[in-house]
Amino acid sequence: MSEAVTRADLPPVARPELIESLGPLLRSWLPRQRWFAGKGRPVRGFTVVSATDLVPPGSSPRLLHLLVRAEQTSPDGPTADCYQLLIGVRRSLPPQLAPALIGRPDRGPLRGGTVYEALYDPRLAALLLEALRMRARIGELRFERTAHTVIPSGLPSRVLGVEQSNSSLVYGDTFILKLFRRILPGTHPDLELPLVLATEGCGRVPPPAAWFHAEVGARGPGADAEPAYAGPDGVLVLGVLQPFLGGAHDGWDLALGSLGRGEDFTVQAGALGRATAEVHGALARALPPVTLGGPQIEALVRGMVRRLDDTARAVPALRPYARGLRTAFDALGQLGTGRRSWTAQRVHGDLHLGQCLRAPDGEWSLIDFEGEPARPLTERRLPQPAVRDVAGILRSFDYAARQHRPWSPDWADACRNAYCAGYARVSGRDPRHEPVLLRAYETDKAVYEVLYEARHRPDWLPVPLAAVERLAAPDTPSHP
């Protein structure tokens, strides 16, 4: 490839024929993936939104980039989610790629081949990095990088094995490429906010080095996909490349290690509180905050109540606590009926210990700014009280403490207090001084956790349910 390579010479991939080959295999493979959002609901069919062959015709192995809408049924009617797939095609798989097998099509244009998850193939993973390095334009895909970024060629790749709602590739312990799996139209906060923070000079967040997107909204009449899917600008952000923080450990593992060794974690928790406040301060300087008055608080409470009601319908174990949980939202609504107002700003949106990395020198960094994956991008980008992120970390301390036997409430309580004190030291605002707001956000987070665990990790459901029982009790203080 050469700089800003355009590969418009590749023949278009036949979309309906691809589904003929891949559809029967995806019906069984897709629901087994951790990042598949529609678990528990039957898949009715597939529609290809975008299909791009990333290698010249006749090359082997073949690399297909697909955006596929999975059409499902639910109690509320038909639903459809768009997923990013990277499909490798070979005649047969070498033994080291056997775990990546998707299947062997028995019909359509891929008949006779073997299709597999391409991220596990170093040859195909290298093509993605090369496209970013060369700012390639291939079909509907656009690869970009910042002007100062130097991406060496030939970096070895490995798939990061952490359970998550997306997929990540590490290149040579130098870069990490986060590939979004469930694709939504609109500006993606996991690219938007780190770019903003880099401009602001905030060193707590790794700056984007490169990214890529699909332009699927500008097709002419007669196109066989849905040009309106990507929204007015026709752009779908697909992946972001950032520096890999070698030697760093995530806060979840550090917390569990501390518990296992019976060690104090308050120094680290306080430092994390300071780092969180620094990021919030940088976001507030770069993206002006807004004021939430009565009408905005009322809308906020309605959203919390709606999520509670929806989760109670989906998870029977939550129903006995629903009335008690609602009192946390009612209390916030009552404050909003007066002249009380709060400041709202852009926030992380899904902050927990697993999204925090501690370097060997003790400094914390925050990563993964996409927000809660189940929510629409427009909702994730709304200004929120900064205490929403604080509540996420406080719930995470509770989660960690619940992994230890016997359950260690004193450890969690000490970490919560140290975190809030560290946050107040930088921001000048102690989250514990807003108990009604903090309880509402902790309750909302616990409800989210109940739905997540019920869908993805049923064995973990008792962890958020224990918090739910506490939060549903009358006059609940905001501590474990």
Walk me through this protein's architecture.
The protein has 480 residues and is an alpha+beta fold. It has 2 domains: 15-243, no CATH class; 249-471, Aminoglycoside 3'-phosphotransferase, Chain: A, domain 2 (Alpha-Beta Complex). 37% of the residues lie in helices and 20% in strands. The chain has helices at 15-29, 122-133, 189-200, 251-261, 266-286, 294-314, 322-336, 377-380, 387-402, 409-427, 435-456, 462-471, and strands at 43-53, 62-74, 77-90, 101-103, 114-117, 137-138, 141-145, 157-159, 167-171, 175-179, 182-183, 210-215, 235-243, 249-250, 290-292, 342-344, 356-358, 364-366. It has a 7-stranded antiparallel beta sheet with strand order 6-7-12-13-10-9-8, with helices on one face. A hairpin with a 5-residue loop joins strand 17 (356-358) and strand 18. Helix 5 (266-286) runs parallel beside helix 10 and helix 9 packs across helix 11. The longest helix has 22 residues, at 435-456. The protein is globular and about 65 Å long. The model is unreliable at 218-228 (pLDDT under 50).
List the helices and strands and how they pair.
Layout: H1 15-29, E1 43-53, E2 62-74, E3 77-90, E4 101-103, E5 114-117, H2 122-133, E6 137-138, E7 141-145, E8 157-159, E9 167-171, E10 175-179, E11 182-183, H3 189-200, E12 210-215, E13 235-243, E14 249-250, H4 251-261, H5 266-286, E15 290-292, H6 294-314, H7 322-336, E16 342-344, E17 356-358, E18 364-366, H8 377-380, H9 387-402, H10 409-427, H11 435-456, H12 462-471
Antiparallel strand pairs: 1-2, 2-3, 3-5, 3-11, 4-5, 6-7, 7-12, 8-9, 9-10, 10-13, 12-13, 14-17, 15-16, 17-18
